Hints:
This protein has 367 residues and is mainly α. The chain has helices at 4-37, 52-63, 83-92, 98-124, 129-138, 152-167, 171-184, 187-201, 216-230, 235-244, 251-263, 269-291, 295-309, 317-320, 325-337, 339-361. α7 runs antiparallel to α8 (187-201). The chain is globular, with a radius of gyration of 20 Å.
Amino acid sequence: MVSPLPERRSDDEALLLWLGTRLGIVVVATVGAGVLAGDKPLAPFLSRWDHWDAKLLADIAEFGYDGDPAANPDPGLPAFFPGMPLALRLVHLIVPDWSLAGLLISFVAGTVAMVALARLAEFEGPQGAGGRAVLALLLCPTAVFLFAGYSEALFLAFAVPAWLYARRGRWPVAALLAAGASCVRITGLFLALALIVEFVMRRQRARSAPWLLLPFVPLVLYSAYQHARTGDWLAWQHAQEAGWGRHIVWPWKSFWTTLQMATGDGQFVWAFRLEMAGAVLGIAAVVWLLIARRWSEFLYVGLQLGALLFSAYYLSIPRSALLWWPIWVMLGGIFTRRRSALVVYALVVGPLMVLNTVSFINGAWAG
């Protein structure tokens, strides 16, 4: 159990790191973008964040899952769970700009998530791991998606506190928060399964077990909603196939396809190289969790990584790693014991994070 003083210290450190890196990204998105633009006209600040999934989520919030009636509907829209669009619609009642609404949601949700991550790392130990776990996450090459109007920050704002409450044995609260996470992303399914394993491993009282069904409810309701719209219970999965060509293949075929794209030419070659690096590091993390016998966390990360490795090609593996808090907690512990490792980590991944941020605000694919 963490005493109040170290927990307060970790909260302050997490908030300082979160606010400081947000300011840094603003500098990169303004000064850095202006330097790179040269004599070319520079898009307004908010427009630089209105790309890819951020735009699709705003379209769902504004028009529903049928998309903008004035444009060709994107077949991938049902792949997005309703949590983020609903949050956008709510914030839009006060903030008229959809892009700004998305940035504000990610900012507030990220604040909650970083404090919870710091507390979780402090709970797991050693003392002082909280701030280092947060820093490791914020230096991740794909950390720009915690700033943009994507769903990662909102998911973490529910999921990390859910796991912290589960570790503390407060299962009703953990289940309610996990249900919130299930509203945001399909990743809530893996969280719900991991909570069951954690519950069994900790040999909790059976009277708390029914609460563990709660995180599955949003998943069922969303499937039922899409079935009412389309007649398809797995509309979210089929939308991924229609929108991004993602379907299940053998992992060696997925690896070979990604390798070809990572060694060829084109604007996405570096993105696919980052995908391959993410896959290797993800496998290493899963092996570590297996060796450490952290069964629930192994299930949470392993199922996500497995789903990505069995896809037609590697897509969004480094971005999905933002959601794998066991990795960031693990790194927080390592960096507390070996500070030199944190310096090396920051020097290697920090520049990649800046480059990915610049790529994103320029409309390029960044994960």
